[in-house]
Every structure is written in C-alpha cells, then in structure tokens.
Amino acid sequence: MGIVDDCLQFLIEGSNLTTAQIHELLTKINTNVNNEGISTRLINPLIDFLCDTSFISVSTKIYFIREALLPNDRIPRDTVHRIIGRLGIRSLSTPFRKETPRAIQSELCRWLVHVYIYMEDVAVYEETFSIWFQLWQLDFLQKWITYLLFWSATTSLVKPWRIKFLALVGNKGGYSNAKTSAALLLERFSTLVPNRAISAEILGLKCNVRRLSTLRRGAWDEAFLANWSCVLDILNRLQRSAFYDLIEELKSLLSFGEPKKEGSTMTTRRNNAVSLNDVDTLEKLAQSFELISIPKDIEAVVTSRNRCSFVFLATVDAGIEFWKRVSQWCVLQQGLYTLGGEFPFIDKLTMGGLLSAYTLNRDKDSQSFCSVKEPPTEIEIICNLASPVLSDITCKRITFARNKVRDLGNCRFYSMCRSVLAKLYILSKGAPGIMESPLLFEALNHIKSFITEDMRERPSDRHVTATLRLVVRILSNFSSVKLREDFAASVLLSKETVNISILSTDPLAIGVMSEYLILSKNIIQACSKNQEVIELHNAHVLDLTNYMWRNKVAGGGTIFEIPLVFVRRMMQNLTFGDSGPESKSWFTVVNIPALSFSSRCAVNKLENALSSKSHFSNVLTEKSFNDFKRKVGDISWLDTISSFYELKVAILGMMRHQEMYKNNSRFLYAYLRSLADFEKS
C-alpha cells in the first residue's frame, strides 16, 4: 500500500476525524495520486464514503472525483453495481429512500464514462442496460448515461418499445438536451438494426445538427485522461499509446454516422448553399443554418438591416477572412468619411448588430477583451465609426424619452435605457479608450442621474435596479483602463445612489453595490490626488462591511450618514421577540431586509445537503442558535457548525455560488481580513 491508499483507508474508517485532519489527508491524497493512483479494492468503500459522509462538502467531493479518483488497475464489475445502487431519486413508492446528492450522482456517471475503456468486463453494462435505460429519464444524469447506453447497445437490446420511448422523451419539454440525446441513441439503434421506423423517429425529433455534433465530442475531460494514463503507464498497467488507442476507438464509434466534411457531402452542401442575404427570418435561419455560405460582399451585409445575418455572424469563427475584410472595408469608409463622405449604412440597428456579433464571437476565445492589453484593430475601427453616431442617437433618444416618461411608463423608459447601455457596454468592452468620448460619457451620466432621481421615490424598483446593474457592468470595463482623473471621478456613482441601493429591500440592489465597490477600487487609484473621492469610497466600504457583517453600532460616528446614537435609540424601541436591547442581531447578512430570506434559504439548503435530522427554524440570532444547539445537540444537526459565527460563514459560502448573491460574499472576502481565508475553503 502506498501513501494514497493509507490515507484513504484512514479517511474511510476514521469516524472521529477533525476538520484539520480531513484537510491534511485530502491534501496528501491530491499530492500523490498522480503517481500512485487508487487501488481498485478501495474504490467501492470510497464511493460509499463520498455518498454518505457529511464531513466533506459536495464541491470538495466533486473535485475529488474529477481530480483524484484515478484507479491503478482495471475497474471491477461490482463497482458498476455499487454506483447503480447510489443513483436515482425518491418516489411515491420509495418515500424514505436515502438520496445521494444529485451533483454526486452526475459526477459518478461521468466518471464511469471516462473509465469505460479499462473495465474488467464491459459486458456488465449490457447486463444492466435496462436499469441504465430507466435512469436515462433523469435529466441530471441523461448526458452521461447516453454515452454508456450508446457504447453498450447490442442488436438484441434494440426493441420497438425502446425506440418509441426514446422518441417520446426526446419530444418532451422540461429536459435540457433530451432531443439530442435521444437522436444519438436512435442513430446507434439504426446502425445496429437498420429500420425505417427508427429513421422516421429521428426525423421527427428535428434535432439540431450542431448540438448533436457537440454531444458526440463532449464525452471527454482531457485533463482526467492525461492524469489517468500517466498513472497506468508509471505502474506498467497500460502504455499511454495503447490507452489513447482505446479512447480513439470509442470516439470513432461516437462519430460514426456524423456528416463528413469532405467528398460528396461537401459537394452537395456547396450545391445547396444559401446566401446569407436571403435569410430574412429566424425560421429560415434555423432551417438552413448548416447551408449558409459566408458572404464576400461586406457592404451587402452591413447595409441590409437584416438582424438574422448578425445572429449568424456571431457564430462564425473569429479567425476567418471575413472579419479581416470587415476591418479593411471600415478603414476605407473611415477614409471617405474624413474626406466629407456620408455613412448611409451606419445606424443604431446596423452598428449595434455588427458590434454584438463581433463581440460575442470574440468572447468565445480563451481571452476576452477585458484581459487583452491592446484591443484588436477590427473592433477599434468599428467602434471609432460607431461612436459618433451612437452618441448622437443616445443623448437625443434618452432626453426625449425622459420628457415623455409619464406617457411611456417607467418600465418602457428603463427598457430603452438598458438597450442604450447594452451598446455602450459593447463599445467599452471592445475598445475601452473610446469611452472617454464626451458624448458617450454624457449619455452614461444622463442615465445615472435619472436612476438617482427615481431611487428617491422608488428605492426598490427592479427596473431601476436592473438598469443600475448594467451601468456597473460598464464601469467594470473602466477598471482595466487608465483614465484621466477628471473622467475617473465623474464615472463613479453618487453617494446618494450607493446609500439608497444598500438600504433597499431588493437583494439585487445590495449585490450590485457590492460589485461596484469591488470594481471601483481600480478606478479610485486614478483619483489618488482627489482626497474627497477616496474618503467617500472608504466610507462606503466601511458602512457596507458594518451593515453586512461587523455590526458595530457602539460609540459615536455615523452609518450611511445616520448618527449611530439615533440608530441605537431606534433599535432599542423595537421588539425582537427573543432578543432584548443588547442583541447583536440588528444588522449582518442574516437579518438585513435584503438578505434575511436568502440566509434562511441557505440554512435550509445546508440542512438538506447534509441530511440533517433536525431543522433550525427560529430567528437567526446568536441567542436562538445557542438555545437550539443545546436542545438538539451535535448529532441530529450539523456537527461541523458549532457556533453562530460559523453558521454565518457557512451562509456566506452558500451565497457565493448563487448569481444574485455572490457579489456580497466576494465583497466581504475582499475587504475583511478575518474572512479572506474562507474564500479559498
């Protein structure tokens, strides 16, 4: 036995391990597993441990399966049966069944797909085909079980009822990708037993060709394969070349029946090619997507005002010749404009569509615009052309709409503002320097002033908050650029906007402010000589940390420009149920209006994830928590949480995985040293 096996044995059998000991064992396993692998005799006990233990978080278990579950020999048949026993959900017939967390179930199926090539006997999948076929109905397992069914299917397993069942599930709503999974399995059935009925069902699914192609190629995690092949090679179990030969066999089996990119197929596609300019509806775009030819006439595209063409261009590879021709054409038009020419093609629709298509396309690359020191020449040129026109349209449009806001309604006005901000976001992301254009700056400040004005009357209006969120996203692009001090100072949000947003009951608003105070840190550096701006930013940070976490209301001073003396007197006149005037539950994430409900939900999720027997349903205060712990003890509740502080930290950790609340956690991790270490755990 090596270090890895010893540590695993100790981890599986140790019932009284502390958190520090578990962390040390996992670290040792992670350090040595790429050299030793894991003995196959320990895999079944390890699977039981990962499914049952509550000492390790679900995210850590997922990481362990992906990075450390590297067998050092062939996987035994009973491992497949062990995993099958852990799959599935509760039903009316099994209401008391112990359900493994769904994320763990999915990871175990994913792991079986990756180790399929080195089983003791792959016939075990044929023997258990009916069970896998039934589990395939579960959306969270469907993708990975599709591969297992595909590889293990035989002629005798192709039944008419299975064909009908696949088509039925594929056409059902509510699944993430059932249509594609069903089509792939039906293609496999058709290969094994050629049949018109199967072909008819495949056509009836109307599966998107690109999605099907993605599913064929989406089975493998190359990093896992590389690590596992090294383990097997080091231990002389299987040479790397032979390992990848087995992988290629499975890949070729998956790609069998996929349209070829050469020969007669390409000739047919060329003969049936559809011009992009002829595709004027989304229905036509979907029907002829694979047949659309990339246009050579740039001017015909950008002057057509055809939105469908921009949808298609957003999917075109960023490195093709088309975008270079767009750049050259823009240079030519810019030269003509300098000489006094006109731009009949540059309007909001055309430039907005072209910018969106180009930006979405470039975002598919490994580096986004935010991480590139010098933006690509093409986008600089397009932005330079677009900015004066969009600026003029933007300012006039916003001012007119604001004057007519009573007729338009608040909803329509802010929808219009978000449309404008979306264009500015694309411009600032593509070429941040362009945002120092005074006209564009004026448009942004116009919207900011309207937001502040409306927040005074409607502090929790979601239309206003959603627009403010987009403003902050634009400011995130400023943070990567060196701005002049006068621009930097004026781009920041007003004190009134920040304070109203934080004190709002809308969780989105306080999340936006947390994001803003993180992003504005870099912008503040450009205002190093402006002491007033720096002090204001520091005051915002101090107030928000106090409001969400520190809860320091003793002594003098203010919070959100409200005297603390007044706050204390007001709080002392309120009734907290089980807490008196000295309660420490006035603020913090668990009690402020915007986050109290999400904190309660986080506690419930924590209890469900760790299969707690008792549930903490009292108010989230230190006194009620201590009373609850004394009553139920550690055994029936979460034994990893022994204090109210640890509960708050756990709630914060849960929030960072939710889109609406994650910036609150990021803010506290960034500005409070006492919480900095928890971000990594």
UniProtKB/TrEMBL annotation:
Q: Which organism was this protein described from?
A: Lachancea nothofagi CBS 11611
In the UniProt record, which is one GO cellular component term?
Answer: inner kinetochore
Q: What is this protein called?
A: LANO_0H18426g1_1
Which range is the signal sequence, renumbered to this chain? none
Q: Where are the transmembrane segments?
A: none
UniProt superkingdom: Eukaryota
According to its UniProt entry, the protein's GO biological process terms are:
CENP-A containing chromatin assembly; mitotic sister chromatid segregation
